[in-house]
Structures are given as C-alpha cells and as structure tokens.
Design brief:
Elements lengths: L3 H11 L6 E3 L2 E6 L2 E5 L4 E5 L2 E6 L4 H17 L8 H7 L1 H30 L5 H29 L11 E4 L2 E4 L30 E2 L2 E2 L13 H28 L7 H25 L4 E2 L9 H5 L2 E2 L2 H16 L6 E2 L2 H22 L2 H4 L4 H23 L1 E18 L5 E8 L5 E6 L1 H10 L1 E9 L4 E5 L3
Parallel strand pairs: 10-11
Antiparallel strand pairs: 1-2, 2-3, 3-4, 4-5, 6-7, 8-9, 12-17, 13-14, 13-16, 14-15, 16-17
Helix pairs in contact: 1-2, 3-4, 4-5, 6-7, 6-9, 7-9, 7-12, 9-12, 10-12
C-alpha cells in the first residue's frame, strides 16, 4: 500500500532545495529542466511533456526510492540509460581493459607491501624511531600508490581515437575510473562491444543509481532511533583507546621498564591497548548496521548519510598496530619455544574475526569503499595481540629451574642502544635464545647459569623467560 502523504513528507525533509508539491494525491516538482510526477500507482520523469521514464511502485518505500532514482536520473541527463558494471565491461572494451589492468596492479602492489610490515610483526626494536619510521613509510606508500594510479590512468584510460585522457575521480587514498560512453573531447563512441542486458525498460528498486547510494526504510532498525547515543559512545571509546595508547607509549619510551614490576608493566603497557581495541570491536559488532569504517560517500543521498555513523577506524588501527608492535618486540622478555603453533592460532583467529566482521556487516555496506578492508586489516594485528596476551595470562603450568647458559650476545641497534640475548639449555635438552635485561645478561655471562621461568598456556604454547638479574 502506498501512503502518498508519507512519501511527500519524506521528500520534503530530504530535498528541501526542490519545489515539491502535493495536489489531489499527486506529487509533482521540476528538476534539472525536467518534471517528476508521482501518485499511488506511477512515478514518471518527463521532459517537454514527453515521457522519459515510468516506474510502477508496490509500496511507499518503493515509490520514494523510485522518485529518488528519477531525481538522480534527471540530474544525470535524463535520457542516459542505467548501465550495470558487468554491462559496462561488455559494452566498453577500453573500460574493461583498464579495469583489468588496474586490478592486476592492485594485487602486485599489495604483494610488494608485505615486506614493509615485516619489522612491525617480527622485529625486536621497539623504539620511537621504529614507530615513526613505520608510520612515515605507510604515508609514503599511500602517496606512491596515488602517483602510480595517476600515471596508469593517464596512459591507459584514454580515448582510442584522439588520445585525450578520460575522466577519473580523486579519492582520499587514490583515484577511481569515471565511466563514460563517449569521449568528452572528440565525441568518439566507446561502447563498441555487445550489450549483454536484454532491455533498459525499468530501473527496479536497486539501492544505487549513477553512483547514488539511497536509503530504504526496509533497512530501518530500532537502533536507528538512538543514533546520537551510539555516536557519543563511539567517541567515548575512541578517547579511551587514545588514552590507553598514550599511557602505554609514555611508559615504554620515557620510563625505565626494567625497574617496573612485571605485573604492573603487563597491565599498563600490554593489557590496556588490548582492552581498548576489544571494546571498539565489541561496539562495532553491537551496532554494525549503523557504522561505516571509511568516509561517507559524497555520492550518497543526505538521508543515507544521516542513517550512518563514521566508525573510529583510525583509532582502532593505531591501537592494534601499537599493541602488535609491543607483542612482536618482546616487551615482556619472554620467548616462545613453539612459535609455529602460535602462528597457527593467530591465523585461525584472524580468519574467524574477519568472517565475523563480514557476516555482521550488512550486505549494503560490505564492499562500500574500503570499510571492510580496513576492519580486516585491524583484525590481522588485533588477532596477534589477542593470542599473544591470552598465552600470557592463561597459564596452565609454570616451573622455575636453573638453566645452563650456552651463549650470550649483545646486539647494537641503529640508535646505539644494545639488545641483550642469552641462549640457555632447557630441561628437555632444547636450546632457546631469550632477550633479557642488561643485569641478567652480565649475570649469565659471569655465572654461566640463570634462573628461568618456563610456562605452558592453555593454548598449548610454551614460553621461557629469565627471572633473575
């Protein structure tokens, strides 16, 4: 059933710039030199009293979406047909070639990025220079990627006749193709391929048209009535995470961690960032239908933007990156004896969390911009931190014994600080290299034996650390 008055009020609220009127059960208003009329059984776009497009609604929400589609259609030119992504590739060989080349370029660039993150997930040098280097490299790579895209599109996304560059859209993290059916410079027809779609006689109620994201009342949930409260909660959690990061960073860089009791060090430096990241993820899962982890699309309707909240993804990424660097850097001076088992659980936790994010995120938001990708990237580092910290706290068995010192090594870092390592012989006859403090290093070098604490967690990971100095 169509409630024409409700549709009219919704249009008036979201399109205040249009002169919309409701007379005798019919909505009418001009837009972009054309006219849109709608009643309970028909929505129509016309120009000079000639019909351009007609749609038949089945309910109020569908009528509203159809009118909104016609508004976008009129502003896009009116007579232009709606071309699906699949049909664009079939119709336009130039577009298809560039899209395929760009996808291959994305894959190659992603593979080349992996070595950059190696020091962050396996290194021992947790210092301020390493941290600044990591963020500087990430920023630099974003700039490089933007430049590569620019060169690629400038050389490939060109008119095959006149050679002029075809339109691209600038994004915050790069560029995107703008589909055109003809060259805007010489008018050359680019759609020389086969039309694989049977007809263009109706638009249906798709949520997108000409790149416009629309809001459907079918997606309305009770939580949408508490948008302001959810937004305030996200801000509070983001501030809490930032505070935890600051406390942890201050202790690591400006406090002598060797003089801080181990329990306090673990709680303030290791546990706080993990709790902050966990709280942000839990909050996302609670209100996933409201959140997007990227910028709100400029092409979305105002109503769509009102129904979504920016998730504090930047805070989450910084928090999990920092927590991951702490785990990889061995702040607790604890060495895993069976790291393969740890990596297996890390991988399993990452897959599980990414799957949960995918399933919890509404279909309309899963592939919006880079929202899901950013959440998955954070999940990769969060899973490592989670498994590492669970291994630290869920201790099944602990034993202390005197171990024979096999070797002692001091490695000088770039900032002239020294990392100290002692290789010991465990009770089972295996040797393990452990990072330790300067006092423990000189004690081991002198006495040739050290007291070690060997723990086995409920996760099955065995770890060893030196406990005397």
């Amino acid at each position: 059933m169509v409630d024409i008055k409700h549709v009219y009020e919704r249009l008036k609220e979201n399109y205040a710039d249009l002169e919309i009127s409701l007379v005798d059960g019919e909505i009418s208003f001009p837009v972009a030199g054309q006219k849109i009329t709608a009643n309970v059984s028909l929505a129509e776009l016309s120009k000079n009293d000639e019909s351009v497009f007609k749609l038949a609604p089945s309910d109020s929400d569908e009528l509203y979406l159809q009118i909104e589609q016609l508004i976008n259609l009129a502003r896009a030119g009116g007579a232009t047909v709606l071309v699906s992504e699949k049909n664009k590739k079939s119709l336009n060989p130039t577009y298809k070639s560039v899209r395929k080349g760009h996808k291959i370029l994305e894959i190659i660039f992603s593979i080349l990025l992996l070595p950059v993150f190696y020091p962050l997930i396996s290194g021992k040098d947790i210092d301020i220079l390493t941290t600044l280097w990591a963020f500087a490299v990430i920023v630099f790579l974003v700039v490089i990627w933007s430049f590569i895209q620019r060169v690629f599109f400038k050389s490939k996304w060109v008119c095959p006749k006149c050679g002029a560059a075809l339109p691209v859209k600038k994004l915050r993290l790069g560029r995107a193709l703008v589909y055109v059916s003809a060259c805007p410079h010489c008018g050359e027809n680019l759609e020389t391929g086969k039309n694989i779609e049977a007809s263009w006689d109706k638009l249906g109620v798709a949520k997108t048209i000409y790149g416009k994201l629309q809001w459907s009342e079918a997606d309305e949930l009770p939580m949408h009535g508490h948008m302001n409260a959810v937004r305030r909660g996200a801000i509070i959690l983001a501030l809490f995470a930032a505070l935890c990061d600051i406390v942890s960073i201050v202790i690591v860089y400006f406090v002598d961690t060797d003089a801080v009791p181990r329990e306090i060090l673990i709680i303030t430096v290791v546990l706080l960032p993990l709790l902050a990241a966990t709280a942000l993820y839990v909050y996302y899962f609670l209100f996933a239908p409201l959140f997007i982890a990227c910028s709100k699309p400029k092409e979305a309707t105002d109503e769509w933007k009102k129904k979504h909240i920016r998730f504090p993804i930047a805070t989450l990424l910084i928090t999990v990156l920092w927590a991951g660097m702490l785990c990889a850097g061995g702040l607790d001076k604890q060495q895993m004896v069976n790291p393969v088992w740890f990596y297996g659980m890390w991988g399993a936790a990452t897959v599980a969390l990414c799957a949960a994010i995918y399933l919890r995120t509404p279909k309309r938001l899963r592939w919006l911009g880079n929202s899901t990708t950013l959440l998955w990237l954070a999940a990769f580092m969060f899973s490592m931190t989670l498994v590492s910290d669970l291994n630290l706290f869920l201790v099944k068995d602990r034993v202390e014994y005197q171990a024979e010192v096999v070797d002692t090594v001091g490695k000088i870092r770039n900032n002239n600080e020294i990392d100290y390592y002692v290789t010991v012989l465990m009770e089972d006859g295996k040797t393990v290299k452990i990072e330790t403090t300067e006092d423990s290093y000189w004690h081991a070098k002198k006495e040739k034996t050290v007291m070690v604490s060997q723990t086995e967690s409920y996760l099955g990971v065995t770890s060893v650390r030196i406990v005397d100095g």
